[in-house]
Every structure is written in structure tokens, then in C-alpha cells.
Amino acid sequence: MNNYTDTLKFLRNVNNLKQKEMIIGKETDNSLYSRLETGKLKIKIEHIEQVCDHLDIAPSEFMAFAEIDTEFLQYKEKLNKAINRHTDIIIKENVLEDYNRLNNQDIKKLTMKDLAFLFTYKNNLYKLWYEVEKINSDDIKVIVNRLSNKQFYSMYDYILALNTINYMNNHQADNIIKLMTPLQYKDQRSIQTKKYANVLLTNIISFKIYQMDYEKALEYVKLAEDQDPTFQSYYFRFDIQYHKNLALYLQKKDTKYIDIARNLISSIEEIQDIQTAKIFKQELNHLVDNPAYYKNNTDYDIVQIKEQN
User: Which CATH entry fits the domain spanning 4-65: 3.50.50.60, 1.10.260.40, 3.30.420.10, 2.60.120.200?
Assistant: First the structure.
């Protein structure tokens, strides 16, 4: 769902109810509900509670359906289309219009949401379209400064960090991870925010392996393993265990760790995540042949944790 009105209609329909049956709170007819579903009346917390009581669902479940940040949903849709259909001229023009709108502004004055959008575009699209600039050191200075001076980190901060962490120097990257992990107030966080916080950890682990800093990579593996398992998806766990064994092999040169890593890749293939398995397999082959293959090189794929949790 992309807003409250859509969510109201969806939950009513899946319960096979007509609008006239939606008599909520102390009302004697459906007029209040009708105005909520049609958007004629702004919904309040008390209305959500009344609807949930009527439908026998938890308010938290209602909110999970009602992802109201429509701008974020549109941005995700644009990005996915751009990556998967980057030769489509109409899609390219649409995304570049949004990219240029952001890129032509002073990044020091952009909101964290707009910074997250802009640098996600840059990180994912600069290799596909020459019109999109690669992230540079001046960009990173601004980003590190903005992130370092925050007291509380939101979903947009994690999106910004995970898309730029591999462009930072070791000191910058380590400091950002120290500030942003572990995720604070995790019980109050959305699934999306938890997911992006996890992706930040998997990205820094990959980055440290690529920089041949295996000891630091394993420190971050330990940090990831110590995260609350209640919001760890199995993709996250596969990713962490795969990179843990990759780092241990590169550090100790014991082939048993490579065997474990290959078995994990096979398991990922068995659950039909062929793209992730392909990226891991290519990464593994490159690093076994040449541990310095990715050093000082940001032109590599970073696996994103899947939506499932």
C-alpha cells in the first residue's frame, strides 16, 4: 500500500466487507469511515485504532501496510526500473530529470532524504549512464560531515551511508560505522530502517575485505553477528557467514573456509537467488586468484539485502 486510504480500502476488501458495514467507534452509520477511505477526512490515530478493532488486526499490522512515504516509494520504483531497464529511453529521461534536479543544487543545503536519493542514483547508475557523475572526494567530505554531526540516525541516513561507505577512507568509514551501529531504539524502528542498517554492515565488511583489512572485516562480522536476531533476515545471515568465511580464508589460507563459503553459495542458489549467488561466486573466484583484485577500486557490485525479513 502507498497511503492510508489505499490501506483502508485494501483491508476492507480482503475481509469481504462493504463500506456500509464499516461502522467504527461510537458511530451509528458508516459516514465517518466513508470520509476516511475517500480521503475527505484526515485520519487520526484514534481512527486507525477504531478500524483495527473493527477488522480484528493490530495497529502495527495496519501501519506495515500503510507505507505513506509515497516519494520514497516512487524513488525506489524509479531506481529499480533504471537498473533493470537502463536502455529504456523513457525511463532514463524520467530518472535523469530527478537526478539533475538534485545534482544541480548545493548538496550542503539538501535534506538528508534528498542526499540519500542523489547518492543512491550516483552509486548505482554512474556505470550505466555517462550523464550520472561518480561520487568524488568532495561529495564524501560533505556526507561525512553531515552524518558525523547527527545525534539520531533515520532510514535516510542509513541509505546515504550504505551507498557511500565504500568511497570513504578507512578513518572516515570506521568513524561512521562507530556512530551509526548498532541501530538505536531498534524496537521502535521500521522494517525498512532495520534492513538498511544491516546493509550498511554487510557493505563495510565487503569493503574491508576488498581493502585486505581482514582483521577489521572480522571485527565487523562480530558486530553483525551480535545484532538482535529478531530483525535479521536469512539473506543477511547468509551474507555475513559467507563473508566471514571468505575473510578467514584470506587471513589464514585454510581451504576449509573456502569450502564453507562455496557451500553457502550453493545454498543461496538452492533458494533461487541466482543473482546473489552469481555475484558471490564471481567475487570469490577473483579474491582466491588475487586478494588485491578489488583494492583501490570502487567498480564492484555490492549485494543488497532482499526485502524479505
Answer: 1.10.260.40
